[in-house]
Amino acid sequence: MYVYILTNPTQTVLYIGVTNDLARRLYEHSQGRGDANKFTGRYQADLLVYFEQCPDAKQAIAREKQLKGWTRQKKDALIAAFNPTWQAIDLETWDG
């Protein structure tokens, strides 16, 4: 299981989610780009800037809830520690 954070091109929005297949979920987010009925579509938040693996769904959901409760400043610091340049992560080439 994965907990992940997406942002938009101007990094003004963060979306936190959970999935068991990160590549598939990123594809799904990219297909919803521009869909006003979906948060990630409305705000064009489909750039992966952070992810972490959790041993099981229960822990992933707990971590997601924890991150969602953090301030923006704390989320930004987490992302910067993992991905200092905030470059969109390509799972095929990521070596972090």
From TrEMBL:
Highest taxon above the source species: Bacteria
Residue ranges constituting the GIY-YIG domain according to the UniProt record: 1-77
Official protein name in the record: GIY-YIG domain-containing protein
Family to which the UniProt record says this protein belongs: Belongs to the UPF0213 family.
Listed InterPro entries: GIY-YIG_endonuc, GIY-YIG_endonuc_sf, UPF0213_domain
